[in-house]
Specification:
Length: 311
């Protein structure tokens, strides 16, 4: 079994990944500075002797002897990554350099958790990996968008120059149990507002589209990519089923039996109009596609938030 470092390991996806890999018998080093999360996501893992939590900031170099590294360290929600944009871009750039230096030193394979945000407000729909994107380099989202683009550059340059074994996953909107109540993502926002019977905030007319991938499907995709030999990526991981934001709001209201009303506010700057992955490559190379449909995933996520909010 492998010794695996997960940066951002106490976060939403990181905690799911830690739990899954522990069940497979691996040894997990979970590194996190707890900027956007708390230990509650991993509390149920702390008694496992193969799990170690390390309070540390990925921007500061620290060496480890590991076989694999999943680099998930970076706030993924606009409400958090815009809170301290300089820290966000430093986490993306310096964090990538540091994990690549670890990988270079101990000949580990490193997977970079990139994002659909590298495509910006896309002019091609759905987005294939060959699309270079339409990103505003000086906008309020650029600390994250451009930070992730530079991280991809670093992955490929370390591979070409130092032969570091890298994998790049472009993650599209992911949701599920373990999301933070106040993380500012659309699904957690809508469910929280609906359960409290508060107004549900839709930006613009709600005609902008997104696709939503359930956490278990994303974890399977990441692990499959990590285990695939002779394939670097980048590869899109996400659910290609596309919904308008208004459709999502109406579905959440129905499933929660909420009395919430939908209210409209102005669109944020550089908010993408459409976002949907082309997963042809993932199907072909990884034999991966998502299995959980939106309604089933929402039911599980709503159940989680009910316990969190209505306790």
């Amino acid at each position: 079994m492998s010794r695996i470092l997960i940066t951002g390991g106490a976060g939403f996806l990181g905690s799911h990944l830690s739990e899954y890999l522990l069940k497979k018998g691996h040894e997990i080093l979970c590194l996190d500075n707890l900027f956007t999360c708390t230990k509650k996501n991993i509390r149920h893992l702390m008694d496992n002797y193969r799990f170690e939590f390390i309070l540390h900031d990925v921007r500061q170099f620290r060496n480890f002897k590991v076989d694999q590294i999943y680099n998930l360290a970076c706030p993924a929600s606009p409400i958090y990554y815009q809170l301290d944009p300089v820290e966000t871009i430093n986490t993306n750039v310096m964090g990538a350099i540091n994990v690549l230096e670890i990988a270079r030193e101990c000949k580990a394979r490193v997977l970079q958790a990139s994002t659909s945000e590298v495509y910006g407000d896309p002019k091609i729909h759905p987005q294939p990996e060959s699309y270079y994107g339409n990103v505003n380099p000086i906008g309020i989202r650029s600390c994250y968008d451009e930070g992730k683009r530079v991280a991809e550059t670093l992955m490929m340059d370390y591979h070409r120059q130092y032969l570091v074994d890298v994998r790049i996953a472009r993650i599209f909107n992911t949701y599920g149990p373990g999301m933070a109540e106040n993380d500012g993502r659309v699904i957690s926002n809508f469910i929280t507002q609906a359960l409290k019977n508060e107004d549900i905030t839709v930006y613009g007319e709600g005609t902008q589209t997104r696709s939503f991938c359930y956490a278990s499907d994303m974890i399977t995709g990441l692990i499959t990519l990590m285990g695939k030999n002779n394939f670097l990526g980048p590869v899109n991981l996400g659910n290609p089923s596309e919904f308008t934001i208004l459709e999502l709001a109406e579905k959440v209201i129905k499933l929660t039996k909420s009395r919430s009303r939908i209210v409209h506010k102005s669109l944020p700057q550089d908010d993408p109009v459409q976002r949907k992955p082309d997963i042809t490559l993932a199907k072909k190379v990884l034999n991966w596609k998502p299995k959980v449909n939106l309604e089933d995933g929402l039911k599980e996520t709503i159940s989680y938030f009910k316990k969190l909010i209505l306790k």
